[in-house]
Design brief:
Blueprint lengths: L1 H4 L3 H27 L6 H43 L3 E3 L2 E3 L1 H18 L3 H16 L2 H8 L10 E10 L3 H14 L4 E9 L3 E8 L6 H11 L5 E10 L2
Length: about 240
């Protein structure tokens, strides 16, 4: 039988080492994602790394280095489709880009492991982890600082609809909450909202925002006396 003649203990051991490496390193990347409660977590990143390793290892055994190179190209394009499913756009907000990029990195780690490049796979995994952990404080610090508006692509505004007799208190509270959250306020405007109410609009400087942070902020604002409704909106800019 062909399956018996193709059985090679040495090659099988090599495959075991390759897949084990992909499993461990993909799991390490996925663990960091799982801790941060991202869409693609422990299992997804592990499966991506192991799957890439399986395809590359099989191609290497069947077609040699040239076959492995061709399969690596297909792995890269295939992971692109998988990553596209993790990217979502809601208004001016685009989420999931980092998740998709991490999946791409996990596939690269798996491809290196499948090709028997264990050291390269380890280095790739370390750099993916470093990008997701060591660079995070830098990104957060940059995102908290206003940028030149002529280069911005989106602006954000927080709104509060309240009764006229408490508008001063609500305005002061809104600005205080935004400053406490490190979102600098560019301008505050007030508009009549019906006969008895006022809409307060706090425009933010162009900066990256965390939707969860603004959701908590408007929820706290709605607890204030006289506040009828609070919400935030992004708007695209040229």
């Amino acid at each position: 039988m062909q399956v018996l003649t193709s059985l090679n203990p040495a090659a099988l051991l090599n495959t075991l080492v390759c897949l084990s490496t992909a499993f461990l390193l993909g799991g390490l990347i996925g663990f960091e994602r799982q801790v941060r409660q991202r869409t693609a977590g422990l299992r997804t990143n592990t499966l991506v790394a192991v799957g890439a390793a399986v395809f590359v290892d099989m191609a290497f055994r069947l077609g040699g280095p040239e076959g492995a190179v061709r399969v690596v190209a297909y792995v890269v394009s295939g992971i692109g489709f998988l990553g596209a499913g993790a990217i979502m756009k809601e208004g001016a907000n685009v989420t999931g880009l980092n998740t998709a990029a991490t999946l791409w990195g996990s596939a690269a780690v798996g491809a290196c492991a499948g090709a028997g490049l264990i050291g390269e796979a380890l280095l790739a995994a370390l750099f993916v982890l470093a990008a997701n952990t060591l660079l995070r404080p830098v990104v957060n610090r940059i995102n908290r600082r206003p940028v030149n508006e002529q280069f911005s692509e989106a602006s954000y505004a927080v709104y509060a609809i309240c009764q006229r007799d408490v508008q001063a208190d609500v305005r002061e509270k809104l600005v205080a909450l935004l400053e406490a959250a490190s979102y600098p306020v560019r301008d505050v405007a007030q508009h009549a909202f019906g006969q008895n109410d006022i809409e307060i609009e706090a425009a933010l400087y162009a900066t990256a925002v965390e939707p969860e942070a603004l959701d908590r902020l408007v929820a706290a604002l709605e607890q204030e006396k006289g506040v009828l409704q609070a919400f935030w909106n992004p708007s695209a800019e040229d």
